[in-house]
């Protein structure tokens, strides 16, 4: 086992355990995020597709504690840090912050003051690498029923959580990341994600 992230079998079992603790559409979403990460990273010469898959699979693992909003980031960080999975712990926080400002999220910051201060300081100083960017992107390309156009996912999230002063900035950043990976792959994102759905869907807050 890599000290900074578990092997694939362990990651799958961890997600299965989390599903028993908190059933919800977030589990299938995580599986599709993982698959998107794998497919995209396979086309990037400098990335490990197995690592990308595992990070994508566990990015929302903090939801194992129950129905929460932004609290899932710090819960995932704590859970993975306790197991020595530093790379996964990092992703648990960074996937929600394409904009490195704690105020940029539109979900409720249902965390303690101590955790709020920790997250704020963490994202202020952490350096994003391509895996952080990849999970941010794939989080916006996957829903519980499969892959979707990023525009669909962004609108869906906005319908559920509303907007704030960072909304357009966050959208622009994600499109920037999408272009970055398309340049790395030398092809369109849609070419490596099978059956991108183009119909409407419903995705609840779980």
UniProtKB/TrEMBL annotation:
Domain of life assignment: Bacteria
Location of the HDOD domain: 20-67
CDD domains: HDc
Protein name (record): HDOD domain-containing protein
